[in-house]
């Protein structure tokens, strides 16, 4: 299936919302043990977000788990190709498994720096390097459809799973999704871990602005001044509601975290979990 471009902005936004509620509604269907199957049909463009696109009418046993590869691509801002750009790295790689038999959901992160064999659609090894290189290598060899195929094949073999369902979001898409559902709730428990600034107390200057924030805030390094949002540290580590811009910073930052990329992966899982919960809520379903 060739990639289809939807030109009108209103139509794009409406289509994105319609397809997302259909996609996320499958989670509910599986939990209540109604039979359904999703499979990937090459590629479908939904502005700033791509998902597997066709729901097959024939059903399978609801006892069969559904596994989905969620990828966050580091494109989407003005300095990285704009909102519709997908030519980047899949720095966030999350595997989500829904088991309707046990009524459980498992979500794990695949460390982006894992050394592995990069495979193409046929299983032929193209190179041996970091696992997040699968997506851009595939993109360079055939565009978005090839990028997805390389990533699913490589990551699936690395973790021992047959991955054939996917969802991709870029930075601009994540901001819009979180804002569309009214924000998500997260916990910032990083007080005193401002590794980038080299300080563990007092005030720090937010990169890209003149604003000062308390130590423990999460922010993006000054190499990317476009992102001026931050997630404050709150004593006692309560949940706090953050918007799309803050969610992007929360999901991307590693410089201010003592545990670096492992902490970032945990934040990404937290944002995705909260985002799915919001999208599955009654009010959000009606909104979408």
UniProtKB/TrEMBL annotation:
What is the name listed in the Swiss-Prot or TrEMBL entry for this protein?
Transcriptional regulator
Q: What Pfam families does this protein's entry cite?
A: LytR_cpsA_psr
Q: Which family does the entry's similarity section mention?
A: Belongs to the LytR/CpsA/Psr (LCP) family.
